[in-house]
Amino acid sequence: MNKGPDIPNNHILNTLMMKGFDAAVGPSEFALRLPNWMAHCAFILFTYLWLRKFRNTAMLLIGFAVMNLNIYLLDFFSLARGYGLSVSFMFISVYYLYNFLNNPKWISITWSFTAGALAVWSNFTLLNYYAALLAISGFYIAFLKLQNKNSIISNLELIKMTYFIIGITVFLVLLILVPLQTIKGNLFGPEVGFYQNTIRSLAFCTIRYDVNNAVTLLSGFIFFITIISGIIFLSDFIKKKYNLFRSPSLMILLLLLLAVISTQLQHLFFNTQFLENRTGLFYIVLFNVCYVHLMHFLIENYAYKLFFYITGFLYPAILIISFIFNFQLSGPQDWMYDSCTKSAVKLLSQDYLNSRPPQEKVRLGATWIFEPALNFYRKKYNLIWLSEITRDDYHAPYDYYYIHDDSAFVRSPSKHILMEYPVCKNVLAKTAHNSQHILNPIY
To answer: How far is the C-alpha of 89 from the C-alpha of 84, rounded, in Å?
Structure first.
């Protein structure tokens, strides 16, 4: 059947922003991608603001490379989807949480939860982050209350924080409750385990090749850094006599771990699938933040600083090498199949003008994944002769066909191929009695 999973739109904020920009500047790729381009600018800005707090030029270079040169993460800052928005808002939330942990003011926690809620509204999988943010903030506010004898923060500030957190959380739940209840189908990933599905899938997407067990090595590195961070930050916490106010790095690590535990608990109690590839994208950012904190802590608190500087540059070096070898503009890794759609629509228009009477309506049958892009280009190019594309079964009679990975269907005697797109595994064809020529494939 030509039908995708029955799920709601879980990129609501991105959809609203795209509609707004589309209305303001007209239908164009620029209008649809503008929200994520803006999100990328914000991500870069807050990366700099955060790294500047370390007051170390080497850490600025290490941190900027770690945060901004992951080739997989960069894909999503140029697409018309909510992933770039979500990780940008999440990082802004982490930035203000870090400010709050160092200097507990209610305005910092307000911005942290506002950005966290916007992250969820951009992509529902960020609920795992928001749950972790709630737990960390609640625990820290309770700690501040116990320490209030030292006048760290006033009771009025604590009350304002508590009411704001409750209020924005209730509001967020009301916004997303209905679409969450209607989620069906395989929205996330398989059910093997967090390491296999989430860590290894993100490691593969980061380097894009599994040569000489590279994915296993990178996955092991991620696991190792997380464990070492826990040991070092916990030891420091104990040395500081269990003072959370002096252990912000430990709290940031706990934020990552609680976001991981969230998916484990959901799988245990509700049999939900583990996040995989783009649905777990935010874990890349959270891990990178923890990595930078670890390197900064080692450089500032231990001897052999040169060794830690060199070690600190190893992970950025992996990201830079992957970036150099994998950077390309033809299409993102997760949606390479859609990178040929614009060319296919132009070719379809050319064939229509050459073979059809003016204004005659034609119908295009397509694999369901192409429906949004095809209707966008239909609107952009004002193709009034092309009927609206639906997700109905493309095996029904149509004038043209745009099919993904179904060679047996498009190579039947009743159809003639107009163009093959091997890289995308797509074929543009039309019914045989309308065909006049066959074009060479595009590679």
So the answer is: 9
Distance (Å, rounded) from C-alpha 273 to C-alpha 271? 7
| Residues 283, 198: Cα–Cα separation, whole Å | 9
The pLDDT tens digits along the chain (443 residues) read: 455 555 545 788 998 999 999 889 888 888 899 999 999 999 999 999 999 999 999 999 999 999 999 999 999 998 888 999 999 999 999 999 999 999 888 899 999 999 999 999 999 999 999 999 999 999 998 888 777 645 567 778 888 888 999 999 999 988 888 777 666 545 456 667 899 889 999 999 999 877 778 999 999 999 999 999 999 999 999 998 888 888 899 999 999 999 999 999 988 887 888 888 889 999 999 999 999 999 999 999 887 888 888 889 999 999 999 999 888 776 677 778 888 899 999 999 999 988 877 778 999 999 988 998 999 999 999 999 999 999 888 888 899 999 998 888 888 888 889 999 988 889 999 987 654 444 444 43
Burial of 150 (0-12, 13-18, 19+ CB in 10 A): exposed
Over its C-alpha atoms, the chain yields an Rg (Å, rounded) of: 25
Domains of the chain from N-terminus onward = 12-326 (no CATH), 336-434 (3.40.190)
For residue 429, give the H/E element and its range.
Answer: strand 426-431
Q: Which pairs with CB-CB distance under 8 Å and at least 24 residues apart come from 7-11? A: 7/182, 7/183, 7/184, 7/185, 7/187, 8/179, 8/182, 8/183, 9/179, 10/82, 10/123, 10/124, 10/125, 10/179, 10/183, 10/187, 11/81, 11/82, 11/83, 11/85, 11/86, 11/122, 11/123
First to last CA, the chain: 28
This prediction has a pTM of 0.89
- At residue 11, the 3 state secondary structure works out as coil
Q: What's the DSSP call for residue 198?
A: I
For the record, the structure tokens of 282 come out as: 């935010």
